[in-house]
Design goal:
By secondary structure, this protein is α+β, with helices and mostly antiparallel strands. The protein has helices spanning about 5-65, 80-90, 115-125, 155-160, 170-175, 200-250, 265-290; strands at about 95-100, 130-140, 140-150, 185-195. It folds into two domains: about 5-195, Beta-Lactamase (2-Layer Sandwich); about 205-290, no CATH class. Strands 1-4-3-2 form a four-stranded antiparallel sheet, with helices on both faces. Helix 1 crosses helix 2 (about 80-90) and helix 1 (about 5-65) runs antiparallel to helix 6 (about 200-250). The protein is rod-shaped, with a radius of gyration of 40 Å.
Length: about 290
């Protein structure tokens, strides 16, 4: 097996080991980055909902207070405003969703599904919990969900304490069967956002493939350079020296001197061979003179 083949095999093995380790490390880093990106999107949606609720409560509700005496306007309710805001987002991005899921809602569309009810129950079982998150399969693909508890405040109880104390316009719109009996501080629902995992995961995979492809291209270029350097500085000079040595070994005095081209070590070896050849020539001439 030639020197170049052995060097190439050694380099390929080293590259394979290094690329595997590097790929695993990069995949781990990119996966964590994708998870942070997805979670950041979910937190941004929660913060956006809170901003809409706060704006509605402080800016919209006061403007509609007088009209609410004659007709119930859900646009003045922070929950309704946040939900409507994200329903419009959901229309253009169906894989993103937001819901203020409630166990006993006034508006039936806010009723929690089975898995959302489980989350709300977890908040009730653990009053210190501020959020829960996880992944679940949906018709749109795998999604990350982030949930934060909704607790009944004194403002909520103005409409949701008892049916008898609720505004007549509310009763006229939604009836008196649902959305009542809330108590201060009780967890009555959860803000739940769902963010798709596929997009961030696909970006991470593309980045990993691009990195590994670039790494492979660099390795091929390096392998080519190493082969050229070895061939011109080591392999070719050694082959020439071997050919000259063969001719000298059979007594061919017309063989040229060993070339001192190539690397420093090869040049030193050639000079040593030339000195040895000169010494042998002198020794042969002495023997011939004595005979």
């Amino acid at each position: 097996m030639s020197l170049l083949v052995r060097v190439n095999i050694a380099l390929v093995v080293v590259f394979a080991i290094g690329a595997t380790i590097t790929g695993l490390v990069c995949r781990s880093i990119l996966t964590r980055d994708a998870e942070r990106e997805i979670r950041s999107e979910a937190e941004l949606m929660i913060d956006g909902a809170l901003a809409v609720r706060d704006y509605t409560s402080s800016e919209i509700a006061p403007l509609l207070r007088e009209q609410m005496q004659a007709r119930f306007l859900p646009q003045s309710i922070p929950f309704y405003a946040a939900t409507e805001h994200f329903l419009r987002l959901h229309a253009s991005r169906p894989d993103y969703s937001y819901q203020e899921a409630t166990l006993n809602p006034t508006d039936p569309r806010d009723r929690a599904t089975d898995w959302q009810s489980d989350i709300i129950q977890r908040f009730r079982d653990d009053p210190t919990a501020r959020e829960f998150s996880g992944e679940r399969d949906t018709p749109m693909g795998r999604s990350l969900y982030l949930a934060k508890p909704i607790r009944a405040s004194s403002e909520c109880l103005e409409c949701h304490g008892t049916a008898a104390s609720a505004p007549p316009t509310l009763i006229a719109r939604y009836g008196s069967s649902n959305g009542f009996g809330w108590k201060p501080g009780d967890v009555i629902g959860a803000q739940v956002v769902s963010v798709p995992v596929a997009a961030a995961a696909a970006r991470a995979k593309r980045a990993l493939r691009a990195f590994l492809g670039s790494l492979a291209a660099v390795f091929v270029a390096l392998l080519l350079i190493v082969n050229l350097v070895l061939y011109y500085l080591v392999v070719r000079p050694v082959r020439r020296m071997a050919q000259i040595a063969d001719r000298v070994s059979v007594g061919d005095s017309s063989a040229p001197q060993f070339s001192t081209g190539g690397g420093a070590e090869i040049a030193a070896l050639a000079r040593a061979f030339n000195r040895m050849r000169t010494s042998l020539d002198k020794a042969l001439k002495l023997l011939e003179g004595r005979s």
